[in-house]
Amino acid sequence: MKRLSRYRRHRFAGPVLLVFALFMIGTTFSVASANTRLAASVMSRTAAIDEGRQIFLKGCSSCHGLNAEGGKIAPSLIGVGAAAVDFQVGTGRMPMADMSVQAARKKPAYNPDQVAALAAYVASLAPGPAIPDQQVLYYERDGSTAQGGELFRTNCAMCHNFAGQGGALSRGKYAPTLMKATPTQIYEAMITGPQSMPKFGDKIITPSEKLDIIKWIKAAQNEPSLGGASMGRVGPVTEGLLGWILGLGLLVGIAVWLATKAR
Question: Other C-beta atoms within 10 Å of 198: how many?
């Protein structure tokens, strides 16, 4: 006790105790704030899931089942993840009235908050691909346009056209144009495989290679058409062929008209 009393009377005892007290107060506040933020995040996610379930029951369950187990005309949504929902609903492809035709891009039926809630609900059913955030989509910093062009021509051009303009597939299907797709939608399509598109997992196309492809597509979207009408961006051959057909057709028509008049 005498030894402890001697330390209490030391000139540095007061400052040390003050620093210790401030440290304990700061630590307690940080832990309490973290717990508060965590609780708020859990409550917000729970509310989003509940809202998404209500949206699902009203607009999706008639085809996909009350518990997203699927039905005769629509597949199960268990395990598809938030990325698939964000892509399909965010681009207006879902919901759709006729499931027998290919889903086309159109104006979304739900606003972004409703799409996020619906995605949260489906993601809560089973693990699946998540919506890529901005930390993943650093294509401007980490992507390579040249490498992306090679990857696109190897893996995507046979369906989407080598310029990303889209193209026809078998049995009335088609690969849509990529000129309106956002980086998030492009990434989501690669990891979820919508419609006739295959899934490109990270072992097939790595995350960095996906960023390369996105960077090339964005460059193609922003590339001006210096030669006039792009004609699907397949080069000067189509424009030249169209010019020859129209030009020669016009000349032949004029010649026939003049010959008719000469009689």
Answer: 10
